[in-house]
């Protein structure tokens, strides 16, 4: 789940992205200050817009924002008040973390993609399909996990690349919009002493 807020350009609206619409046509159901956005074909909820959200709690930020469990509980009360049965489930786990490539095999249907098994926590390994030319066994890099919003506004969801499942993205300095990032392809290369699962800290992880 991704929360975004930009009062200057959008207004006092908290946009909540629940799932990827995968390009399907969507519509909205509005009740009071709540709008449910859902796919027309499956009726699946893909997002919520909460209008006048600053009347519910103090909110600042521009772009992706992270809410406390108490703030999400307030949003759920608002959904319930307007007659919606669904509930929002908060997720405060870091979405940009150090990852370590444990396995790397060539994609069977591509001449430049690799299927990587990437350790993103002490007890968690995810599969990521990547085309970075410098991806290598043992490399430590920064991974954007599902639920992340990239600096350019792109959203990370589980997906597939040429038939192979992918659960995140290994990031280049340019994609992370780091200062003095090389304008070329290639994921960020971290010191071998970095620990998988450590939240991304630009001041620590980039000396560009």
UniProtKB/TrEMBL annotation:
Q: Which CDD domains match?
A: tRNA_bind_bactPheRS (cd02796)
The UniProt record lists the keyword tRNA-binding? yes
Residues covered by the TRNA-binding domain: 90-201
GO MF term set:
phenylalanine-tRNA ligase activity; tRNA binding
Report the enzyme's class at the first EC level: ligase
Could you tell me the keywords of this UniProt record? Ligase, RNA-binding, tRNA-binding
Name a Pfam family for this protein.
DUF4479
Q: Which residues form a coiled coil?
A: none
Q: Tell me which EC number(s) this protein carries.
A: 6.1.1.20
UniProt-listed SUPFAM superfamilies: Nucleic acid-binding proteins
Question: Which InterPro entries does the annotation name?
Answer: DUF4479, NA-bd_OB-fold, tRNA-bd_dom, tRNA_bind_bactPheRS, YtpR-like_sf
NCBIfam families cross-referenced by the UniProt entry:
YtpR
What protein name does the entry list?
tRNA-binding domain-containing protein
Q: Which organism is it from?
A: Streptococcus acidominimus
């Amino acid at each position: 789940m991704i929360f975004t807020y930009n009062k200057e350009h959008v207004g006092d609206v908290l946009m909540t992205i629940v799932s990827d619409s995968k390009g399907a046509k969507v519509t909205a159901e509005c009740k009071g200050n709540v709008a449910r956005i859902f796919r027309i074909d499956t009726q699946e909820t893909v997002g919520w817009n909460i209008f006048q959200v600053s009347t519910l709690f103090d909110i600042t930020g521009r772009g992706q924002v992270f809410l406390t469990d108490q703030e999400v509980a307030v949003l759920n009360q608002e959904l319930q008040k307007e007659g919606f049965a669904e509930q929002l489930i908060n997720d405060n786990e870091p979405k940009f973390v150090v990852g370590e490539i444990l396995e790397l095999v060539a994609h069977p249907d591509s001449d430049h993609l690799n299927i990587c098994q990437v350790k993103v926590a002490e007890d968690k390994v995810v599969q990521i399909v990547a085309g970075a030319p410098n991806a290598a066994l043992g490399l430590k890099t920064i991974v954007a996990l599902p639920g992340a919003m990239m600096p350019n506004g792109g959203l990370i969801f589980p997906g597939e690349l040429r038939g192979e499942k992918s659960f995140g993205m290994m990031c280049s300095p340019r994609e992370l919009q780091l200062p003095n990032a090389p304008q070329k392809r290639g994921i960020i290369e971290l010191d071998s002493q970095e620990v998988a699962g450590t939240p991304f800290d630009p001041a620590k992880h980039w000396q560009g």
